[in-house]
Amino acid sequence: MQAMVLEAPHRPLRLTAMAVPTPGPGQVLLRIAACGVCRTDLHVIDGELTQPKLPLVPGHEIVGRIAALGQGVTRFRLGDRIGVPWLGWSCGACRFCQSGRENLCDQARFTGYQIDGGYGDYTVADQRFCFTLPDAYSDLEAAPLLCAGLIGYRALRMAGEGERLGLYGFGAAAHIIAQVARWQGRRIFAFTSPGDAEAQDFARSLGAVWAGGSDQPPPEPLDAAIIFAPVGPLVPAALRAVERGGTVVCAGIHMSPIPSFPYDILWGERVVRSVANLTRRDGEEFLALAPKVPVRIAAVPYRLDQANAALDDLRAGRLQGAAVLVADDGKPA
């Protein structure tokens, strides 16, 4: 098989010939059809997440078909199309796992970080953490649902039920969750990099009632805000934008340092909270909901050997929607 491999942080990925992995007990072998390119991949490759296995095959928004079954696999059959998300394994025994919060397990392992991921032709995955995918989505469209969609959905849940919702950073996750929030009857206020008129137009095309730079205040107070951009100074900006009782959700796994801010912008029962990964319940709920909305995916395809170009485009903010690596011809493998 071929895979794009990270040999050390801060280096471009290298196209490498590897042996096809063998599924162990409880695992499935997937022939990969598509894998989304996520900002978390950038955090791994750029050394901001500091504990990757090396060498590493990145990628955790994986769509594929089962090519082999390990011993004891009962959830799936050969040929099934399934998705593999960021959370790839948890212990199942700790108090977090036992209470349905496996995303907080101390021993959790993550796809494309401690487990080889989807920037290749094949991968293995724990059957417990794989999802059946809605038939309404092609492989290209389904891939971004598995992180941009799932983490965005968890962040939306944590934001509460307020009508006026701010989204800071209008990329892969925000373009999905804006559609869900609109379907729920909320009004969307989109914040982009200052001067990014293209991203603001993209947000309006998806129903945002207002779109502007992150250096601008919204035209009215917000009930909640979700920060998708990994930019610490957005936290006090969002606190200033939400009214009393509002919630600011930090949706990323990594963020630059948050500057100090005066207590009065937190006072008034405002809340700042983070979102850590996802639970399987989040995945099942969101993947059932997405086709009902229906969520439409803006996906930009790249070949496997173009992974570095896709990452560069994401890093530079040149994408509207989500980048996805696809099998040679973009068709199911």
UniProtKB/TrEMBL annotation:
SUPFAM superfamilies: GroES-like, NAD(P)-binding Rossmann-fold domains. Belongs to the zinc-containing alcohol dehydrogenase family. It holds the Pfam family ADH_N. It comes from Rhodopila globiformis (Rhodopseudomonas globiformis). One of its GO terms (molecular function) is alcohol dehydrogenase (NAD+) activity. Keywords: Metal-binding, Oxidoreductase, Zinc. NCBIfam families: adh_fam_2 (TIGR02822). Residues 24-135 form the Alcohol dehydrogenase-like N-terminal domain. Its cofactor is Zn(2+). This is Alcohol dehydrogenase. One of its GO terms (cellular component) is cytoplasm.
